[in-house]
Fold this protein.
Amino acid sequence: MFSINSTYSSELTTDHPTWTSKFSEGPVFYYEAIQLKVKVDDPVNFTSDVNVCGFLYEEQFDPTDYSANLIKYSCDEDTDKPFSFTALLKNDRFRILVVTSRRLYETKSFTITMRSVFSKVLIERFIVITRTTTTTITVTNATTINTATTTIIITTTTACRYSHIID
């Protein structure tokens, strides 16, 4: 049934961004985000060659919220098996495949094979850059008896995405 192969190879390194998935409480897993597109609606089977996790998102990936837009994932933290799942890719929508390590701060090379029926999967690698802005507000309340100062710090994080075509 799946006759057309597309492959993507890379390596998770200490230079990659980190994120928190449902399997952790802190940003300790390196990840790489890959945008996928097909020319016609097509079921695609995703498999990895090593034990990494695969998360498939619809249209957008938010590294601060692993569950937002999540379609499917394969990550069995109790085994060392490669991930595998099948999902329908629609030609009018982008999908984002996020590949992560299974162990805290783990780096490794990986290859993802995408087997489809009708068309080759078009692949773009995303580089997610996070910008943090901090705003400090100081409020002073002065009375004839004493002066009280309260400082409020507001931190805002914005994720920006840049991409370049791989295939």
Summary: The longest strand covers residues 122-142. The two ends are 23 Å apart (CA to CA).
